[in-house]
Design goal:
Layout (H helix, E strand, L loop, with lengths): L1 H11 L4 H10 L10 E14 L27 E7 L5 H9 L5 H10 L3 E3 L8 E3 L2 E8 L6 E12 L4 E13 L3 E9 L7 H14 L13 E7 L9 H9 L3 H4 L4 H7 L37 E7 L4 E3 L2 E2 L2 E8 L11 E12 L6 E5 L8 E2 L4 E8 L9 E6 L10 E4 L4 E5 L3 E8 L8 E9 L4 E5 L3 E4 L1 H12 L20 H13 L3 H5 L3 H4 L3
Helix pairs in contact: 1-2
Length: 531
């Protein structure tokens, strides 16, 4: 009901998605409100791209292609990038490790980290990759404090479930006060005439994608399902399909789409919604161009679907809403036979207004005027909440200000080495010693607490500074060094201007002629220096 209201509002008024969600929240009865729980809006972008077995990103490809208007400042809280058909041959790893060329993951990570985003590692030593599929999740650094927990699951569907070249990567992210967002990056069977197998893959992924709480994706608050689903346009002549594309009659072309038919018949993906398609089919193109391959019928293989839970209410009086306000492709990306597809969502979440994080860092802190010194042992002081018990392998790490992922630490220390100092109002005061040989060079850093159980950072400190005492002593010495007095000398003949040359010569001649004592007594010393 509320979703229909949002759709009608977007048709009648030209207002931003933020305003639509705020207007929806204003209509909630105040009597059902829960004290201390406030909503916030999690703006999420999803990108899916089949890279057509390209080993390394070509020179003419850059993630800027996804942001034609402004690629410098990205107005998102979370960005999920799903890639399919990545090259997984040994030559790919040899090229990236020996020749030091950037892989697809490194290219995206460097691009987004330079724009204020951090990649979630899900506590994996590598990346979320299954054979040719890759899932990258980036969160804005300022929004990391709202990520409570993450987990991942891999489902194989190739060769009746024995091979991972087809399947799905399922990732769950808990945002705010226990609101779960599930991301599913999939690559299904490519046979155009075997839609039944793709339906079987859909059911298998839905059944096996059970995370730690043994729930299916549909049981979570939000699900974003995307990837190369390989559903084709069928039972239409190629000339008619191209004619519909030229006339931009995409809704008419979708009447022949397999996924649209299956959803209408409630066979597969009927629980999910899809934004109206207003772009050309994403498959199949001649690589290097934007021209369709004449040997294949153009189809919408790359899709992005979404849904919210049936009982989409996190707490009484606090409904969960998801609003999609962009769905399109990028024709300028020409390195593959697919076109990348992107969608943007506004997701409602809730957080306790007076909530206390599990770990609250107190020192060092630039705000509190405390720092660390190079070449000396330093102490990290923090408050551990009473109801929080750290895991056996949880650690506190030192991060650079522009760290690229949550495992990109300069140094770290396990929380097992902490000792209790006292009791504060919100928890237990703890200290951890960082020995002198582990102190990073001078600069600005952050402290972060990584939970192995939650697989993410659960706390970040204020920026602090590491100072080198030797450089500090040099700067103080340069300030206290006495200044040398300048030796003032009498002006010489060279200091006079050309206009005064005649007067200077006349004065010199007068001094030589007056040699009697009376003249010498009355002579000005300023004139004597002119000799």
């Amino acid at each position: 009901m509320m979703e229909n209201n949002l759709a009608s509002q977007s048709e009648t008024c030209q207002c931003s998605p933020h305003e639509q969600l705020r207007s929806t929240m204003r209509t909630l009865p105040k009597s059902d409100a829960l004290d201390g729980l406030i909503p916030f809006y999690w703006k999420t972008q999803v990108i899916t791209y089949n890279v057509h077995r390209i080993t390394l990103p070509p020179v003419d490809f850059h993630p800027r292609v996804f942001y034609p208007n402004n690629s410098t400042r990205l107005d998102f809280d979370m960005i999920a990038v799903g890639l399919q058909e990545m090259s997984y041959i040994p030559a790919c790893y040899l090229t990236t490790s020996v020749l030091k060329k950037k892989s697809w993951a490194e290219l995206f990570e460097r691009f987004y980290s330079s724009r204020g985003f951090v990649r979630l590692s899900f506590n994996a030593s590598g990346r979320l990759q299954m054979v040719g599929m890759l899932l990258l999740v980036f969160v804005r650094r300022s929004m990391l404090k709202y990520v409570r927990k993450v987990e991942v699951k891999y489902v194989k569907t190739g060769f009746n479930g024995y091979s991972g070249h087809k399947g799905a990567i399922c990732a769950r992210i808990v945002v705010g006060d226990s609101v779960s967002i599930v991301l599913v990056n999939c690559h299904l069977n490519p046979d155009p005439n075997n839609a039944e197998y793709r339906v079987w893959e859909y059911n298998l992924i839905t059944e096996k994608c059970r995370l730690s709480e043994a729930q299916k994706p549909a049981d979570f608050d939000y699900v974003l399902w995307f990837g190369d689903m390989n559903f084709r346009v069928q039972r239409i002549e190629p000339e008619d399909a191209l004619n519909f594309i030229r006339k931009e009659l995409y809704s008419t072309l979708l009447e022949y789409d397999q996924l649209t038919t299956l959803r209408r018949l409630k066979v597969a993906f009927h629980e999910y919604d899809e934004t109206d398609i207003t772009f050309k089919p994403s498959y199949k193109y001649l690589p290097g161009t934007s021209n369709f391959d004449p040997c294949r019928l153009p189809s919408y293989c790359d899709r992005i679907l979404y849904r919210k839970a049936v009982d989409a209410q996190q707490k009484p009086g606090f409904p969960l809403e998801i609003l999609s306000f962009y769905y399109g492709s990028f024709p300028d990306a020409v390195c593959s036979d697919h076109k990348p597809v992107s969608a943007t969502f506004m997701i409602t979440s809730y957080v306790m207004e007076c909530g206390v994080p599990p770990i609250l860092f107190e020192s060092p802190s630039y705000v509190r005027g405390t720092c660390w010194l190079v070449g000396r042992s330093n102490i990290c002081r923090f408050v551990q909440r009473f109801d929080y018990t750290p895991g056996l392998w949880d650690w506190i790490g030192v991060y650079k200000m522009d760290f690229a992922n949550d495992r990109d630490v300069v140094t770290y220390a396990y929380m097992l080495t902490a000792w209790e100092e006292g009791v504060a109002e919100n928890g237990v005061v703890q200290n951890i010693l960082f020995k002198e040989r582990f102190i990073p060079p001078a600069g600005k850093y952050l402290l972060g607490c990584f939970s192995r159980r939650n697989r993410c950072l659960i706390a970040l400190s204020d920026p602090f500074e590491v100072i080198d005492p030797r450089e500090l002593a040099k700067s103080f010495a340069s300030r206290r060094r006495p200044r040398k007095r300048r030796q003032t000398s009498m002006p010489s003949l060279e200091t006079y201007n050309r206009k005064d040359n005649r007067n200077a010569k006349a004065l010199q001649h007068t001094f030589r002629m007056n040699t009697n004592k009376s003249t010498m007594l009355n002579f000005n010393p300023m004139q004597a220096n002119l000799l």
